[in-house]
Every structure is written in structure tokens, then in C-alpha cells.
Amino acid sequence: MKQSEFQEFYQANRDACLRSVLASVGDRQLAEDLVAEAFTRAWVSWHTVRRHPAPTAWIVRTALNTRISWWRRRRREVALDGDLEIAATADGEPALDSALLTVLRRLPQRQREVIVFRVFLDLDTKTTAEALGIAPGTVTAHLSRAVTTLRSQLVAIDQPEVGS
Amino acid sequence: MSTHDTETTAVLNALKGSLDEVSMDTPVSQIVSAGRTRRRRRRLAGYATGAAAVTALALTVVPLSQPFSQPFDASSDTALGSGANPAHVSNVAFTMNRHTDGTIHVTWDKQRYFEDRAGLERALRAAGFPVVIKEGVFCAGPDDDTSLVRGIGPGVSAVMHGVSTGDGKVGIVFTPSAMPAGKQLFIGFLSPAQLAVTGGAPGSVERLVSTTAALTCTAQAPPASPRKEGASNPGVKDKTAAKRPSPPHQNR
């Protein structure tokens, strides 16, 4: 195994992967654990992962799949659709924009996945489509709908109605 | 760029920027260490699985590889028998149990009737029953009686007979003590091409042959002899005509 290659990959992409997973799960520590687990699996199977068309997409998908298996195993995960206190961070951790993340996590799963891959991982439409197993046109459509929803929600947050 | 595009870019930038401060705390050394531990465990698990497989194979091969001349110990009826003689052998094609009365009960899996005759031959020999099993050829010594009645030669019924197992399998009881001195059982299964004489049903020839004289084998199926009904070559025992259930050769 090329140790340096994996280390470079990790250093270059760990934050983006963490943010992507955080955008999906909403829990900072859980996201870190999931991403660490995904990178560990990537290290074990690096000879395969390194040839993946989008290794970062592999990491994020593995992390999210791991979350599902952990959830099934433990059966004590909080509901994703609820308003989690995302901003309640430990000392020294940056405060997260809870409103933004809440809106993001309220998107339909496919739209959220497209946002994660296109925005946080900076993958192009074609690679995102391949990673998600959908057509490029579908990626574009999901992104457009997601942006429309986010824009309307964020405007509503920034400009709350009088009396609300 | 349109207002819509500008707003879209602004939204996505805001979204991305909202997590700019989030960074992964886990050092790469921790990832690599965890990976090494996991890989080591997998290797150990692989070694354990491989060792178990080798042990199982050895337990299977040892009783099957006993020499033909070893005496049969009928007093033992434990899982693998005492010493060299197995009391029970089981594989995908057949099961063989040695009973305290000295008989050997073999049950062929109906679906795998033709799959491991060499293994059966070794197992029977290891249990003290002298047997030669062939497919497609029919053998006899120069002084052996080659007459057949429905595929069975003189004296065969004393050393082997079929039993109904009632579960769709073929049961045969072998009796080593009834084997005449200097004789062994020859079983010749019909090859797929030769099965035409039985209409495709499994067929075989059993006769007692010499253990000392050289056997002469021929691929010519034994000549027809009178039989009650059915198959076109009564000289060959058609398993479908026997009382015991017949294994479907087409399923081999």
C-alpha cells in the first residue's frame, strides 16, 4: 500500500467529507465518527478505493451507510426530521448555522445527496450522477429544486414575517 | 449571469460557507492504526477459517485413505471408529455407517448418486469391504462367473442387498463377513452413453470377482438376459425396476 498516497488523500479531503456527512446527519461528533470509520475502511481497502472514480464520494457513501447500520444496530438514533440543537457544541468547537443545516436536512434525501456531492465535495454533475446511480439530468433537476427550496427557506429565515 | 443564477450561487456559497469552520480532528495516524488492527484481525480470522477447513479435510481424508487390506473392526461403532476403520463416513454423495453386527450400511443421496463413486470405494475398502467400482467398464477375472440375472452375479446378494430407506435415498447393506475368500465385489455403473439400454434410468452390474487374478474389463455392456418387464437390456440391472428408489441419473 502506498501510505503516503492515502495520507495525502486523507489530509486533502477529510474536512470536505466531514462537512458532507455533517450536512446529512446533523450531529458533529457522529459525523466525525462516521467519517473516521469510512476512512478506516478506505485504508483497509485502499487498493480498491484509490481506483474509484470519486474516492470522496465513496467515503461519504460509506459513512452514511455505516450510520444506517449503526442505527439498525443500536436503535437509539434521534429522528432526523426533528429540530436538533445543532448549535449546541462543545467548548472550542465552532458554532454551526443550525437554521441552515435544519433547512438542508429537511430536503428530500435525493436532493440533499445532490447538494452534498455537488456543493460540499465539489463533484461535477457527471461524477455525482455516477456516484448516485442516477442520470445527469436528474442531478440537475434535484439541484435546481433543492436550491429553490433552500432559497425560499433562507429568505424566510433572514426576513422573518412581522409579528411572527 | 441572471439574477436567478446569482441567487443560486449565493445560496450554495452560503450553504458551503456555513460549514467552513468544521474540520476533522481525527489524526491520520489513528485511522491507519485502526485500519492495521482491523486488517490483522481479518487475517487471523482467515487463518482460523483456513485451519478449520484443513482440519475438516484431514478428518475426511484420513478414514477414506486407509488401505484396502486392513481388517474390519466390527466391535467399534464410534463416530470415526477405532483405529483405522471408520464407523461413519459422510460426504455430499453418500453416508456410510458401520454397524456392530459387522454390516456396513451405505445410503446414497438420490441427487448425487453418481458423483463420488471413488470416494465410496475408498470408504468401503477402509471399512474392510473389498470392492472395485467402475463406470462404463465391466470387469471380471479369468475364472470368475460372469453370468448375470438382472445385472447381478452369483453370490452378490449375500454380500450386498438393497433396503428401503423411505426418504428418497438409496440404501444398500454390505456384509463383509459374507464375502468369499479371494473375492471382492465389482460394481460397474453404466456410463451416460450406456444408459440408453435402461432408457436413461441408472443401471449397474454387480458381480464377485477375484482379488488376486488380473481383471479384464470391457466397455461392452453385458448381454441381455430374460427379465420380467420393462427395460431393453435385462442383463443390466435397471435401478428403476428394483424395489429401492432409483436415483435420477439426469440430475447428476
Could you describe the 3D structure shown?
The complex is a heterodimer of chains A (164) and B (252). By secondary structure, chain A is an all-alpha fold. Chain A contains eight helices and no strands. Chain A has a single domain (3-158), classed as Winged helix-like DNA-binding domain superfamily/Winged helix DNA-binding domain (Arc Repressor Mutant, subunit A, Orthogonal Bundle), CATH 1.10.10.10. Chain B contains four helices and eleven strands; from the N terminus they run ααβββαββαββββββ. The relative contact order of chain B is 0.12. In chain B, the strands form three sheets. In chain B, strands 1-2-3-7-6 form a five-stranded antiparallel beta sheet. In chain B, strands 4-8-9-11 form a four-stranded mixed beta sheet. Chain B has a two-stranded antiparallel sheet with strand order 5-10. In chain B, 26% of the residues lie in helices and 20% in strands. Classes of the chains: A mainly alpha (164), B alpha+beta (252). Chains A and B meet through helix 1, helix 2, helix 5, helix 6 and helix 8 of A and helix 1 and helix 2 of B.
What attributes does this structure have?
heterodimer; A: 164 residues; mainly alpha; Arc Repressor Mutant, subunit A; globular; B: 252 residues; alpha+beta; five-stranded antiparallel beta sheet; four-stranded mixed beta sheet; 4 helices; disordered C terminus
Unreliable spans of chain B are 54-84, 225-234, 238-252
Task: Tell me roughly what share of residues is in helical segments of chain B.
Answer: 25-40%
User: Can you name the CATH architecture of chain A?
Assistant: Orthogonal Bundle
Largest sheet of chain B: 5 strands, antiparallel
Give the CATH level 1 class of chain A.
Mainly Alpha
What's a quick, concise take on this entry?
By secondary structure, chain A is mostly helical. Helix content of chain A is 70%, strand content 0%. Chain A has one domain: Arc Repressor Mutant, subunit A, CATH 1.10.10.
